[in-house]
Amino acid sequence: MITLSNISKSYKSVVLDNISLNCHKGEVFCIAGANGSGKSTLLSIMTGLIKPDSGSVVCPGRIGYVPQDNGLFENISVKDNIDFWAKARNQKSDYSFFSERDLKKKVAHLSAGIKKKLSIHIAVSSGYDFLILDEPSTSLDLVYQKFIIDLINESKEKNKGVVFTSHNVTEIQQSDTLCILDAGNIAYNGNTRDFCDAENFQEKLYGIILKNAAAQ
Q1: Comparing C-alpha atoms, which of 161, 169, 160 is closest to residue 137?
Q2: Strands 63-66 and 130-134
Q3: Angstrom distance (rounded) from CA 84 to CA 102
Q4: What share of the chain is helix, strand, coil (3-state, %, to 5)?
Q5: Residue of 20, 31, 29, 21 lying closest to 182 (CA atoms)
Q6: How far apart are CA 148 and CA 133, in angstroms?
Q7: How far apart are CA 171 and CA 146, in angstroms?
Q8: Which of 21, 65, 3 is nearest to 186 (CA)?
Q9: CA 214 to CA 48: how far, in whole Å?
Q10: Which of 81, 110, 150, 183 has its CA 20 to 30 A from that of 119?
Q11: CA gap 32, 38 in Å, rounded
C-alpha cells in the first residue's frame, strides 16, 4: 500500500494542503481535478521525484511511472530507447510491443499514441507493484485510449496497484477509488461507484473542476 500522510507543498502559493491518501495493491485509484489543482505534484511526491514540505510517503514496492511529458530521447530510435533503459536496469531488451518498422523510427517522428505506448513499455518492463500514470490518454485517439484502459484493467487483474490522473469521465468510471482535488485540498475521497451513482454526478464533478479552473 502507498500511504501519503499529511502531505503539503507550496511554491509561490499552496499547491497541496495536508493531503492523506492510501492506495492499495489490486486497486485502481483515480485522482481528478482541474489543471493546477495539484494532481501532477502529488504524483511526483508519490514517486519520490520531489520532496513535500511536510508529511511522509511510504511505498513498499516498485513503481512504474509514466509522466505527462514522455521523457524519451527524441533524436534516437525506439529500439535505442528500449536498449538504453534495458542496459541501465541490467535487463534484456523487450521489443514485443512494437513492429520492426516502428523500432527503427526516431522518437521525434512518432505519433503521440506510439510515444505514450513506448513510455509505458519502458515504465513497466522492469516489473512493478504500482503503476502511476499522469493523464495517460491526453491527446490520444480511441485506439490508444482503449490501450490505456486495457492496461489498467490487466494491472488490476494481476493484483498491481494503479494510480492515475484524468479528466475523462469514462476513465474515471474505471477506477475503484476516486479522489477529487480542489485547489490542493481533497473535495472527495471515496468509492468511485458511490460518487458516480449519485444523481447528476457529472455536474458535481465538473462543478468542482470548473470552480477550481475559474480561480486560477
Answers
A1: 169
A2: parallel
A3: 16
A4: 35, 25, 35
A5: 31
A6: 10
A7: 10
A8: 21
A9: 30
A10: 183
A11: 10
The single-letter code of the amino acid at 58 is V
| 101-111 CB burial, b ≥16 within 10 A, e <16 | ebeebebeebe
- The Cα–Cα gap between 136 and 73 comes to 19
DSSP string, 167-210: --HHHHTT-SEEEEEETTEEEEEEEHHHHHHSTTHHHHHHHHHH
Fill in the amino acid letter for 111.
S
Quote the CA–CA distance of 78 and 109 in Å, as a whole number: 10
Sheet with 14-23, edge to edge strand ranges: 14-23, 2-10, 54-58
Coil, strand or helix at 79: helix
pLDDT tens digit sequence for 39-96: 999 999 999 999 999 999 998 888 999 888 877 999 999 999 999 999 998 989 999 8
Task: Quick: pLDDT tens for 150-188.
Answer: 888 999 999 999 999 987 788 888 899 999 998 889 989
Taken in order of first residue, the domains within the chain and their CATH numbers are 2-62+129-214 (3.40.50.300), 72-127 (no CATH)
